[in-house]
Amino acid sequence: MKTLLLVGIGAGDPDYITYQAIKALRRSDVIFLMDKGAAKHKLNALRREICARFLDGHAPRFAEGLQPERERDAADYRASVDELNRDKQAVFEQLIDEQMADGETAAFMVWGDPSLYDSSIRIIEAIAARRSDFVYDVIPGITSLQALTARHRIPLNSIGRAVEITTGRLLAEGWPQGVDSVAVMLDAKDTYRRFVGQGLYIYWGAYVGTADEILIAGPLDEVAENIAITRAEARERNGWIMDSYLLRKEGIEQG
After folding, report:
1. Per its UniProt record, what InterPro entries does this chain match (predicted)?
2. Which residues pair with 3 in a beta bridge?
3. Residue-wise pLDDT tens digits, 37-60
4. Which residue of 1, 171, 230, 255 sits 20 to 30 Å from the alpha carbon of 243, by its own alpha carbon?
5. DSSP label at 163?
6. Segment among 58-67, 162-171, 223-232, 234-243 with least mean pLDDT
7. Topology of domain 2-139, per CATH?
């Protein structure tokens, strides 16, 4: 029997990793890394840094799989995601079959937390549904939204009120009903700009927890264009961007 561990490693700062995650990595025989191309080499470099810093002499071997790419601006978004996950599943299975011996433990080092806008759990569940040669466990990590609110020194929700976590694509359909605070991930099109003039405050961050971290906060009407310009420049400079933000109605008491 093989054992797979989906290990949340936090949102950028190696110090975000939990002791539970460290213990999981220390019991692993192999660490699986997904190669996302030269532009994102810093992500796997950070994963290797975490292992070098925290594994206390334990030296698992590393095995890399090629990260499939999703078709951007596809007419059918859900179909493009399903196709991406099928491609990822094939890569995951190849790693399990070719890089693990019976009785070994392997870890996928998942950015942030495996439960929040990450496909790893669903992919492993799909594999486990049709084969019985491995078991798996999930180790939580600090999410990018937790890191974002900590760096801005704010709570995620206002007092006694709900907060919605969504994507830029869904936010483009309109402000969610019944909430004063909206946390947004995976926004490639600066969707917050659609809400200028609606009395909102924004807390934005890119590469949070890393040496490239950028933070901007203020009334949306005043900082929206600065965020858009800063974001475009950062993406051009680094070849990729990882950002998130919290929109909150002004005048709402935080808590």
Report:
1. 4pyrrol_Mease (IPR000878), 4pyrrol_Methylase_sf (IPR035996), 4pyrrole_Mease_sub1 (IPR014777), 4pyrrole_Mease_sub2 (IPR014776), CobF (IPR012797)
2. 105, 135
3. 655 677 888 889 999 999 988 989
4. 255
5. E
6. 58-67
7. Cobalt-precorrin-4 Transmethylase; domain 1 (3.40.1010)
Burial 136-145 (b: 16+ CB within 10 A, else e): bebbbbbbbb
| Per-residue pLDDT tens over the stretch 144-199 | 999 999 999 999 998 888 999 999 999 999 999 999 999 999 999 999 999 999 99
Dist CA 25 CA 28 (whole Å): 5
Q: Is the pLDDT of residue 255 over 60?
A: no
Domains of the chain, by residue range, sit at 2-139, 144-249
Whose structure tokens read 């009120």?
161
Rounded to whole angstroms, the Cα distance separating 245 from 171 reads 12
- Count CB neighbours of 36 within 10 A: 15
* Band of residue 73 on the pLDDT scale cut at 50, 70, 90: low
Which tokens go with 136?
């798996």
Q: How many helices (H) and strands (E) would you count in the chain?
A: 7, 10
Question: Angle of helix 41-54 relative to helix 19-26, nearest 10 degrees?
Answer: 90
**In this structure, are residues 68 and 146 in contact, taking their beta carbons and an 8 Å threshold?**
no
Residue 30, number of CB atoms within 10 A of its CB? 17
Class (C level, CATH) for 144-249: alpha beta
d(CA 246, CA 225) in angstroms, rounded, equals: 16
